[in-house]
Amino acid sequence: MAERTIVHGSFTIERSWKAAPAKAFKAWADPALKRQWFGSPDPANPKHIFEFKVGGREFTEGEGPGGAMFTFDVRYYDIVPDNRIVYAYDMHLNGERISVSVATVEFRADGKGTRLIVTEHGAFLDGLDTNKQREEGTNFIIDQLGASLETQATN
Q: How far apart (Å, rounded) are the C-alpha atoms in residues 52 and 31?
């Protein structure tokens, strides 16, 4: 059996957008809008769950680079509309748990726009994932959110 390890890590990502906090928050809360930047939930996949409420669950699975199968399993602990989201989640790669994390998303008014602050604390398991990889992936996803908000503003 391979050595079992755990590595802890944290990161914070900040972005500022012209969209108001209510609009940025809605992009997380509305499944159709979230699909535009996050890629899920897929209404055609009966396994996908999107219960955006305190105590609710979000579950998605899909094929990643190289054909690897990823799952993202979330439990929402605190939601204050237009202000914050607190959730915990675990990720699996090809059926193996690779991490467990707690994340916060803050929507702060910045003039007429939003300053978004995402902070994550993770436990990365057995060398299957790293804090650096998760931060890079989260930066990519948050940039996708920003692009989606800009597209909505021009439509």
A: 9
Q: What is the CA radius of gyration of the chain?
A: 16
Task: Please give the Cα distance from 41 to 60 (Å, whole number).
Answer: 6
> Full-prediction pTM beyond 0.90?
yes
Q: Domains of the chain by range and CATH?
A: 6-38+45-154 (3.30.530.20)
CB of 91 closer than 8 Å to CB of 82: no
pLDDT (average), residues 72-79: 98
Q: In what order do the strands lie in the sheet with 96-110?
A: 6-17, 113-125, 96-110, 84-93, 69-80, 57-63, 49-50
Under DSSP, the state recorded for 93 is: E
